[in-house]
Write a structure and sequence with these properties.
This is Thioredoxin domain-containing protein 3. This protein is α+β, with helices and mostly antiparallel strands and about 550 residues long. It has four domains: about 110 residues, Glutaredoxin (3-Layer(aba) Sandwich); about 70 residues, no CATH class; about 130 residues, Alpha-Beta Plaits (2-Layer Sandwich), CATH 3.30.70; about 130 residues, Nucleoside diphosphate kinase-like domain (Alpha-Beta Plaits). Helices cover about 35% and strands about 20% of the residues. It contains 23 helices and 17 strands. The strands form five sheets. It has a five-stranded mixed beta sheet. It has a four-stranded antiparallel beta sheet with strand order 11-12-10-13, with helices on both faces. It starts with a helix and ends in a 12-residue tail after the last helix.
């Protein structure tokens, strides 16, 4: 532990955006080791850094830091990068980058930049006009699964039995859009409690006629509209899920409660906050480049004060086509061409915000699309507060409707799948807490199995290390009891799960990522509680081996 403490003294730990911004205030040269949460900083270079710090003896102008890419918005383009990255900041400006643990090159770069700083301080040379490196995230993956926030529905209760979870049948129940039922507590084993309702756009598989107060004939629907229901004419029977389960020969996995009184009682017992939760809405928010660069912290403070939760965020440099789509309402204005040039000149910040009645509240908060309109009727809006001289438009964007929010979130944050494993030594209480951590981090548990991993099955998950000497120890750990194997789904799932797990060594995790799962529950490197895929390709290969029936809807992304 003493050695680790010395490393932290050598390299300051930067693990959030505020610390990153503060670090950029350093005078002189700052050498930044950009690392992934799951693997930690590059230890191989620390001896060199300690040597240079001693030999150069320039504590005022030479600084070393480690920066966690997963938790710093600026470092978004470096996430899920297995190769070491070293950035060099001179007086807050990133002037160069070296990929890989190239000690001679890093050594020479540090010496050259420090010698320049010495000459500048002595008046022997003028500070060079460095070209600052811009970090660009070129990720333009296609959109995947939809988000559904429509909750103005009737509900019922469905109890999914533990064997349904273990055998993977749950997904067949959850993905069926033709039911309006609610899953409640199971008393044994691993079970799901779900809130489910009929999609307004889908006609129920079984319906009955109700009285038409106006005595009008039901409107006929065309063939391509045969699944659209007329609410005043048809209503769904509460047993539609039960009938569907029976048709699919999986009714033995699920019990359905259809009495409205009982449904409401179960909701009150098991989901006391359901009424407020059901009003939560997601919306896409976007900070245009100028605002993002100059006043993002002010915007973040307002977002927090207004009760929003930031579910996801990413920096993105918009393409010309994307900028034109987002700025379509200004296309007839004289400044449209300059606006598009500005929107594509640097990174914007896309956010997914969550709050009760979030979409409407965000729209009211930011105000109209132009400063002129805001001056006429909404002087307190963010449009006025963050107005710039460059363009007379709102520097903030919000989705116009829940449908638009759904599409825009899918576009900017396309879902991704990763494989996750909870090892046998995790206690029941620890498993439950890990499930809670997973949910709070915004993951969907798309599929899950609780199985005792044989060598053949373990080989499918750990295929990259089967020839290593320590693999027999891994197999011994996995043979101690059943493991929980899951498919986790969200945007950037692979790197987000790696970040949530923390470094492989629990002791290192406690130092560098104290809130991570391995820091909380890990015992040793082998008994570190959880495992996850290292990259997208490995994730999909492993998922296909373990969940052979699984076919991701967003297959183009993978």
């Amino acid at each position: 532990m003493a050695g680790k403490k010395r490393e932290i003294q050598l390299q300051a730990v930067i693990n959030n955006q505020s610390l990153w911004d503060e670090m950029l205030q350093n005078k002189g040269l700052t050498v930044i080791d950009v690392y992934q949460a799951w693997c930690g900083p590059c230890k191989a270079m620390q001896t060199l850094f300690r040597k240079l710090k001693t030999e150069l003896n320039e504590d005022e102008i030479l600084h070393f830091v480690v920066a966690e890419a997963n938790s710093i918005a600026t470092l978004q383009p470096f996430r899920d990068n297995c190769e070491p990255i070293f950035l060099f900041s001179v007086n807050g400006k990133i002037v160069t980058k070296i990929e890989g643990a190239n000690a001679p090159l890093v050594n020479q770069k540090i010496i050259n930049l420090i010698n320049e700083e010495r000459k500048i301080a002595a008046g022997e040379m003028v500070r060079p006009q460095y070209h600052e490196i811009t970090f660009v995230d070129s990720d333009t993956e296609d959109a995947g699964e939809a988000f559904n926030e429509n909750v103005d529905q009737l509900y019922s209760i469905a109890i999914i039995k533990p064997e349904a979870v273990i055998t993977g049948k749950t997904i067949k129940i959850k993905e069926k859009p033709d039911f309006e039922d609610f899953v409640t507590l199971m008393t044994t084993g691993i079970s799901y409690i779900l809130v489910v309702s009929q999609d307004n756009k889908q006609e129920p598989p079984c319906e009955e006629t109700v009285s038409n107060p106006e005595n009008k004939e039901p409107k006929e629907t065309s063939e391509d509209q045969h699944e659209m229901a007329t609410p005043t004419v048809m209503r769904k029977k509460w047993d539609s899920l039960q009938e569907y389960l029976e048709r699919q020969n999986i009714s033995q996995f699920c019990d359905v409660e259809e009495n409205t009184t009982n449904v409401n009682k179960f909701i009150d017992i098991f989901f006391p906050d359901f009424k407020s939760i059901s009003k939560l809405e997601k919306t896409l928010a976007l900070l245009r480049p100028d605002l993002f660069q100059e006043k993002k912290e002010d915007v973040f403070n307002i977002i927090q004060d207004e009760g929003f939760k930031i579910l996801m965020q990413r920096e993105i440099v918009l393409s010309e086509e994307e900028a034109k789509t987002l700025c379509k309402e200004y296309e007839n204005e004289d400044y449209f061409g300059n606006l598009i040039e500005n929107m594509t000149s640097g990174p914007s910040l896309a956010l997914v915000l969550l709050r009760e009645n979030g979409l409407q509240h965000w729209k009211e908060l930011i105000g109209p699309s132009t400063v002129e309109e805001a001056k006429e009727r909404l002087l307190e809006s963010l449009c006025i507060q963050f107005a710039t001289k460059s363009f007379p438009i709102n520097q903030l964007y919000g989705s116009d409707s829940l449908e638009a929010a759904e599409m825009e979130i899918q576009y900017f944050f396309p879902p991704q799948n990763t494989l996750a494993l909870i090892k046998p030594h995790a206690t029941h209480e620890q498993r439950e807490e890990i499930f809670s951590i997973i949910k709070e981090a915004g993951f969907d548990i798309t599929q899950m199995k609780e199985i005792l991993l044989t060598k053949e099955q373990a080989d499918k998950i750990y295929f990259k290390i089967t020839n290593k000497d320590f693999y027999k120890d891994v197999l011994e750990i996995l043979s101690e009891g059943p493991s929980v194997v899951m498919i986790l789904t969200k945007w950037n799932a692979v790197s987000e799960w790696r970040r949530l797990m923390g470094p492989t060594d629990p002791e290192e995790a406690k130092l560098l990522s104290p809130d991570s799962i391995r820091a909380k529950f890990g015992i040793t490197v082998l008994k570190n509680c959880v495992h996850g895929s290292s990259n997208i390709q490995e994730a999909m290969e492993t998922i296909n081996r373990i969940f052979e029936e699984f076919v991701p809807e967003n297959s183009e992304e993978h």
